[in-house]
Amino acid sequence: xxxxxxxxxxxxxxxxxxxxxxxxxxxxxxxxxxxxxxxxxxxxxxxxxxxxxxxxxxxxxxxxxxxxxxxxxxxxxxxxxxxxxxxxxxxxxxxxxxxxxxxxxxxxxxxxxxxxxxxxxxxxxxxxxxxxxxxxxxxxxxxxxxxxxxxxxxxxxxxxxxxxxxxxxxxxxxxxxxxxxxxxxxxxxxxxxxxxxxxxxxxxxxxxxxxxxxxxxxxxxxxxxxxxxxxxxxxxxxxxxxxxxxxxxxxxxxxxxxxxxxxxxxxxxxxxxxxxxxxxxxxxxxxxxxxxxxxxxxxxxxxxxxxxxxxxxxxxxxxxxxxxxxxxxxxxxxxxxxxxxxxxxxxxxxxxxxxxxxxxxxxxxxxxxxxxxxxxxxxxxxxxxxxxxxxxxxxxxxxxxxxxxxxxxxxxxxxxxxxxxxxxxxxxxxxxxxxxxxxxxxxxxxxxxxxxxxxxxxxxxxxxxxxxxxxxxxxxxxxxxxxxxxxxxxxxxxxxxxxxxxxxxxxxxxxxxxxxxxxxxxxxxxxxxxxxxxxxxxxxxxxxxxxxxxxxxxxxxxxxxxxxxxx
Length: 567
Fold this sequence. Notes:
Layout: H1 7-36, H2 39-46, H3 51-65, H4 68-80, H5 86-99, H6 102-107, H7 115-127, H8 132-158, H9 165-172, H10 177-191, H11 194-206, H12 212-225, H13 227-234, H14 239-260, H15 263-273, H16 282-309, H17 313-323, H18 348-379, H19 382-410, H20 416-452, H21 461-484, H22 487-494, H23 497-516, H24 522-554
């Protein structure tokens, strides 16, 4: 009787190989993502004008990220921000399932003999060049080499199981569609990567452990298991987030059910389009042919599912909306961050864009404060002044959240351009927070003083109105520049300096005349002059944000804007 294999040796070899495989996939994915930069955001944000371009963009982005579940989580952000409809997200999710088959096609190549060459070449390209984008491609090649080394290690570790009857009997159960689908779904939910599951299936097929049909059932199951990431990420978020996750589940479950009764036919088609080795027999032929057949079958059913179900985009979106109905939303008493989801930190270009969106959210709060300030001053209303202080607390809360998010992002690997953009966003956040503090602290303190001591400042309202209006308009324009990326708007705010200074000078002259005519006492004059200084400082901060935007566009974050110094 043949001795049982050493399960400790097999286990350590198998899990060590799995660790190398997953780390290699992660390294390759990170290299591609960093090299692609803003390209992925552009694809998802712009190429979704119809269901077909949406599917194409989903496939391309997922081919880079190598995880359909991550693509789905990214799409949630675009839908919640209003940049993509739920219907468009369906197309992207369908395409994501096609993109995730790329890994299976890569690992089906038997190039383990060149694995160390890839590692050495990738390490050299990653280490020596100065250009960041070249380094990222080096990381991609290095990760690809590690991926194949991990597969080779898993193959070597499991080799003794070829002749172990209990394991052979377990593998034979994989031909049962329901068992195979369940096992594939469970393992994928555990590792949270359908690409990893399919890669391991191909490795097992290359050892002769799995038939093509068994490999297909496991791959079908992996499509269902990958939905767990999107579901978990949507928990606790608005209904639109859960709807997008439900779309992912619906598409993958329906797609798997479509093939349950046609696995043999799918296997036959995969054999027809895959290279054959008629010169081999038995196990040798199975080992040589099955890996590519599994990869092709995986691509076939994902492409076919998309071609069939893409005509039902609207019904799927409608069904998701029925499953997750809209809730009655009440305006929260406390303003909270809306866009800073940690899942985007793995993709810096997308995380930076989420931070920009949160800056716009913060800027809207600051702009509302600027607009509300004159009325609170004119009315000398304690409640309105207190409300300004509360709005400043909202701004401070958003500021802290943005700083935490950008600091977490900064601890990762960023390209030079991404680091510059991060610094730009930090500067803008700080200037915005300072603007809120000017109103919430300095102005409110002055306003409360006038209320407590019954100091009349009503007559100062008219002289200050032009300057207030100009500062409020400048704040709104800067916010528009951040949101749209239109630097010319920011330049206009910078060039408004002379106009606003002239309005401030005119206001001071008018205040002096009011006091001279006896229409304002000395204490009222002093406080109102302080208010004029506050207006000037508000414009200073708004203008500083505009300067940061212009310098960022000119590619020189530390140099002064042409022809402009100071405030």
